[in-house]
Design goal:
The chain is α/β, with parallel strands linked by helices and 291 residues long. The chain contains 10 helices and 11 strands. The chain has helices at residues 21-28, 81-91, 98-111, 128-140, 159-173, 184-190, 208-213, 218-225, 232-237, 268-272; strands at residues 10-14, 38-41, 44-48, 53-54, 64-67, 146-150, 176-180, 193-198, 201-207, 278-279, 285-286. It has an 8-stranded mixed beta sheet, with helices on both faces. The protein has a 3-stranded antiparallel beta sheet with strand order 2-3-4, with no helix packed on it. The protein starts with 9 loop residues before the first strand and ends in a 5-residue tail after the last strand.
């Protein structure tokens, strides 16, 4: 997997469950220790397996944060909301007095749409959407530059409110996002570019509208055909592309292209070698021999 995210940009990362999206996000932030490869942030190399570089992440935690998928399990049930949001401030010593700490927490809660009287409550007293807002306030507490959003709206009934909040925060603070999600319509709405993953490999990478209007890889075409269409007339005429077979086990990967066992365009070349991402014009990158 290889990609770059520009300052102030949102890169959407999509693909079916188990393809490695969350692993990519967590490895970037070094919540998982990478075994090989290179991670670079803001001109600094954080990890490089060839040059044996493996830096201490503590100074970079202020600049790189994560909003977790499950707002139920990512918040400490024994801590009040004020302590949950205040913990990053404590760890990085970002205040001079208890009064300043309290004011910073109140500002963060207001930023994400929580009331001041929520501060003394515990996580179990909130709805899923409110809990996710607490998680977002915690991530914003250290004023980061880059946030990995790991399916932040998949468990919510008020997903569009949270997505709009992510967009507003990006404009106000100049944030960069890696936005991991299943829902292609949400990803298109928030992303500048979209990357499609399958079985731990990047299949396609392009500007959001370009990818939705002109998908080239057979896997991307299949994913897009499964997106629900709100207009019944259009939905009736659209054709669903159903993939044959099952996803291969990551422990027994097929040779060559990881998608070949489910692809109607597969040839002997696909079994012999893995296609590299190649530019098909306007930065539209595709890993396929036959499309």
């Amino acid at each position: 997997v290889s990609f770059a995210i520009k300052p102030g940009e949102t890169l959407g990362l999509v693909g079916e469950s188990g393809c490695g999206k969350t692993t990519v996000g967590r490895t970037l932030l070094r919540l998982y220790q990478p075994t090989a490869g290179r991670i670079e942030f803001d001109g600094n190399v954080l990890f490089d397996s060839e040059k044996k570089i493996d830096v201490d992440m503590h100074p970079y935690r202020k600049q790189m944060q994560m909003v977790f998928q499950d707002p139920y399990s990512s918040l400490n049930p024994r801590m009040t909301v004020e302590d949950i949001i205040g913990e990053p401030l404590d760890v990085h010593k970002l205040y001079n007095s208890k009064k300043e700490r309290h004011e910073m927490i109140m500002d963060l809660m207001e930023t994400v749409g929580l009331n001041a009287d929520h501060a003394t409550r515990y996580a179990h007293e909130f709805s899923g959407g409110q809990r996710q807002r607490i998680g977002i306030a915690r991530a914003l507490a250290v004023d980061p530059k880059f946030i990995v959003c790991d399916e932040p709206v998949s468990a919510l009934d008020v997903s569009i409110q949270v997505v709009n909040m992510f967009e507003d925060l990006q404009k106000e603070r100049g944030l960069s996002y890696l936005f991991i999600a299943h829902d292609l319509l949400v990803v298109q709405h928030i992303s500048d570019r979209i990357a499609v993953m399958y079985l731990g490999h990047m299949m396609e990478l392009a500007d959001a509208d370009e990818l939705m209007d002109n998908p080239i890889h057979p896997y991307t075409q299949s994913l897009l055909s499964a997106v629900p269409i709100p207009d019944p007339e259009t939905a009736r005429h659209s054709k669903r592309i159903v993939l044959e077979g099952d996803v291969p086990s990551p422990l027994r990967m097929p040779s060559g292209c990881p998608f070949r066992s489910r692809c109607k365009y597969a040839t002997e070349q696909c079994a012999a070698a893995r296609p590299e991402l190649t530019d098909r014009g306007n930065g539209h990158m595709v890993a396929c021999f036959n499309r």
